[in-house]
Amino acid sequence: MTYDLILKGGTVVSPGGMAQTDIGVKGERIAHIGDLTGVDAGEIYDATGLHILPGVIDSQVHFREPGLEHKADLETEARSAALGGVVAVFEMPNTNPSTITPDALTDKLAR
């Protein structure tokens, strides 16, 4: 099999523990975890010395919008989360007004 991307030799952290191994990616999905020596890929990235973790869920974020945009906003905080490996968030309703209804969420996303 040919992969779009192979991450070579990274320390893969999974529920089963940690192991220095390779990851083969096809499309947007992990297709194989294990030795991929001699396997072709569109791109091969040397991950030696790096840790590869599953996406993180942050269960308490503060996007500050509406009402506290001078501190941060939805765009800056979402970008920061993504750069840190966060794939899902639960926002605390500590804005003014609180984002606790479908209409308030629609308004926030339209900003």
TrEMBL record:
Pfam family membership, one: DHOase
GO BP terms, alphabetized: purine nucleobase catabolic process
EC number: 3.5.2.3
InterPro entries noted in UniProt: DHOase/Allantoinase_Hydrolase, DHOase_cat, Metal-dep_hydrolase_composite, Metal_Hydrolase
Dihydroorotase catalytic domain span: 52-98
PANTHER family, sorted: ALLANTOINASE
Name the record gives this protein: Dihydroorotase
Organism: Hyphomonas atlantica
